[in-house]
Design goal:
Largest sheet: 5 strands, antiparallel
Number of domains: 1
Structural class: mainly beta
Order of helices and strands: EEEEEEHEEEE
Shape: globular
Radius of gyration: 19 Å
Helix content: under 10%
Number of helices: 1
Strand order of the largest sheet: 2-1-7-8-10
């Protein structure tokens, strides 16, 4: 297979059915699932593998928006609640348009920073179970 590369330029991102992609500077869906555990018994074929439960997170860095309905306001208001999320990656390239969706538990963001700096926020949201990956279009 030949070399193929792409820059991350455009996504669509929604939390609780509201779009916030214009505030997002960076995002990561992280698979932190452990490898599971191998248990052994005293018989010749006595190897048993216990699979680990899925452990995914959604990491976001965004421009803070404290207006009513802005991402900072929403994350703070919904702290502790479970909401739907959806990320469409490369939505402008039909052959590469992929999607992750599922549910996250909202965590209120940290607040503050240096004087005269653009206010940005980082937050890590636990994903409930394993997010659903799918191809869109093509």
């Amino acid at each position: 297979m030949s070399v193929h590369h792409r820059k991350i330029k455009v996504i669509t991102f929604s939390l609780d059915s509201e779009n916030y992609e214009c505030q997002v500077r960076s995002w990561n869906v992280n698979n932190g699932t452990d490898d599971g555990e191998v248990l052994y018994t005293q018989c010749p074929d006595g190897e048993v593998r216990e699979d680990a439960d899925p452990s995914y997170t959604l990491e976001l860095t965004f421009l803070a928006d404290w207006r009513v309905g802005g991402i900072s306001d929403v994350l703070t208001t919904l702290d502790g609640e479970t909401v739907d999320f959806q990320i469409d990656h490369h939505p402008d390239i039909p052959a590469e348009h992929v999607r992750w969706n599922g549910q996250v538990t909202i965590k209120a963001p940290s607040v503050g920073g240096e004087a005269r700096a653009t206010e940005t926020t980082e937050v890590t949201l636990p994903i409930i179970g394993k997010p659903v990956y799918s191809r869109v279009g093509a």
